[in-house]
Amino acid sequence: MDTLAAGPAIAFSVSERAAMRIAEIVASQPGSTGPDAQALRVAVLAGGCSGFQYSFKLEPAADADDHVIPAGAARVIVDPVSLELLGGGQLDYSDALMGAHFTVRNPNATSSCGCGTSFSVD
Q: Measured between alpha carbons, how far is 109 from 122 in angstroms, rounded to an integer?
């Protein structure tokens, strides 16, 4: 079950694993239930060893120009600039021996660093 987002030209999806983990994290937050529950903001910031880096944080509300992506019982928020760099990508969640973390499969990234949180585009 992947949920697609935010308009016909630029889509960003959330895997079922990521949606379930976001819902678990939000549910563990005090007072975070119902329509006012926090959402996971996925952003692309300048920096990292390859030029851009992913940022993940909980936020209580979206800004007026944000794209809100329903993901099962959870929500993902992406700002318009980040969405341009994430277009066609997917947020996933990995729970492996090396640790559990959110990952982004980004077709716009032309290279990335070994840690997987930094990337570049041409």
A: 8
pLDDT tens digit string along 51-108? 788 899 999 899 999 999 999 889 999 999 999 989 899 999 988 877 888 888 888 7
Residue 38 CA to residue 74 CA, distance in Å, equals: 8
Q: Is residue 39 part of a domain?
A: yes
Strand 67-71 to 52-59 pairing: unpaired
Number of domain units in the chain? 1
